[in-house]
Specification:
Pfam families: Abhydrolase_3
Helix content: 25-40%
Order of helices and strands: EEEEEEEEEHEHHEHHEHHEHEHH
Radius of gyration: 20 Å
Largest sheet: 9 strands, mixed
GO molecular function: hydrolase activity
CATH superfamily: Alpha/Beta hydrolase fold, catalytic domain
CATH class: Alpha Beta
Structural class: alpha/beta
Protein name: Alpha/beta hydrolase fold-3 domain-containing protein
Strand content: 15-25%
CATH architecture: 3-Layer(aba) Sandwich
CATH topology: Rossmann fold
Strand order of the largest sheet: 4-5-6-10-9-11-12-13-14
Oligomer: single chain
Distance between the termini: 32 Å
Number of strands: 14
């Protein structure tokens, strides 16, 4: 998969003559240079680097699943729970629901092959069980919104063509496509997004809903799980002012990433970051499936995420809310904290349990 190289901990050499200069940056994650190029060399604390290591695919089962990359437009990373038996192309116990995962990173960085996503989504695939299809997204500022949402919809279209229409086309890995067809039930697709990926889940689901079931059949988006979505407003919320920052989420990241990702001239009141605001269509008019929204108590965007949930309820939408007490943004992606800190491990298991229950009910 593209962009999956390990970030370096030291800055790269300057171009000949040292002519390139940094004109903008996002605290540790990326720097924009005066020639328009973007450097995503990691410059933050070195202890974060292990979580950004890419995990290679494997066809031999590990911990109850296999991992496959399916290059294309867009590229997929696929987690397949190990079947007990496959007979004549059918899994024992039937096909599995599909989780389509959109990664976070403020629309500007990260990759689905990184350890921090791998440890959570491989675990979730086996817990549900479900086929997890993680989508490689474009990155801003090279590509601004709505490119990310367009890619989310394109991912669903590609998934439908591979599974329902059996279109292999020029696929590099026809074996992975065959395994996907054998395992996946695309009448039960759940869009799951982390942070900015949750924003994509909302808008991709809305687009599918607006098209109507007949356009997408047999694919059906049965629900959305928005994990600590990147919803916000132009003015600081109480949680932005009072909650402490973490390496995964700072006010600088919140401001800079959105400035780089939103359409030129837009503020954080834009519907892409504030779907409950006055610039967005009334939520009553937005066709959305049942929603599970996971909010962290110590998250900078806690209050605006809860505002979104209240707006969904007021619009008559079906929404469940999970509040993870004492946790900060992306806590469940920090493998070291999940493994070593009992509270983080417990809250992560609670999040997985809530997703399992939500999918089972829909």
């Amino acid at each position: 998969m593209a962009n999956a190289t390990v970030p370096e901990s030291q800055p790269p050499a300057q171009a000949a003559g040292g002519r390139r200069k940094v004109v903008d940056e996002v605290s540790g994650w990326l720097r924009v240079l005066d020639d328009g190029s973007v450097d995503r060399t990691w410059t933050g604390p070195p202890e974060v680097l292990p979580m950004m290591q890419p995990v290679p695919p494997y066809a031999v089962p590990r911990d109850g699943h296999t991992l496959h990359d399916l290059p294309g437009d867009p590229s997929f990373r696929i987690y397949l729970p190990e079947p007990e038996v496959v007979v004549d192309g059918d899994r024992k116990g039937g096909r599995l629901p599909v989780i389509v995962h959109f990664h976070g990173g403020g629309f500007c960085f990260s990759h689905p092959s990184w350890v921090m996503y791998h440890h959570f989504y491989s675990r979730l695939a086996c817990a549900v069980p479900a086929v997890v299809v993680s989508v490689e997204l474009p990155l801003a500022p090279e590509r601004r919104l709505p490119a990310h949402i367009d890619t989310g919809v394109a991912a669903l279209r590609r998934l439908r063509s591979i599974i329902a229409l059996s279109e292999d086309g020029a696929l590099d890995d026809k074996a992975a496509a065959k395994l996907l067809r054998q395992a996946a039930d695309i009448s039960r697709v759940f869009l799951v997004g982390d942070s900015s990926g949750a924003n994509i889940s909302h808008f991709a689901a809305a687009r599918v809903g607006a098209d109507g079931a007949g356009i997408w059949a047999p694919l059906c988006v049965a629900g959305c799980v928005l994990i600590q979505p990147g919803f916000m407003r132009a003015t600081r919320s109480r949680s932005e002012l009072e909650v402490g920052e973490s390496v995964f989420f700072t006010l600088d990241m919140l401001d800079k990433c959105n400035a780089m990702a939103l359409p030129v001239g837009a503020t954080k009141e834009h519907p892409f970051t504030c779907p409950m605001g006055p610039q967005a269509p009334p939520l009553e008019s937005v066709p959305l499936p049942p929603m599970l929204v996971a909010v962290a108590e110590n998250d900078l965007v806690r209050d605006t995420d809860l505002e979104y949930c209240d707006a969904l309820r007021a619009a008559g939408k079906e929404v469940e809310v999970l509040l993870s007490r004492g946790m900060s943004h992306a806590f469940y992606l920090n493998k070291f904290a999940v493994d070593m800190d009992p509270s983080t491990g417990e809250r992560t298991q609670g999040l997985i349990d809530a997703i399992v229950s939500f999918i089972a009910c829909h």
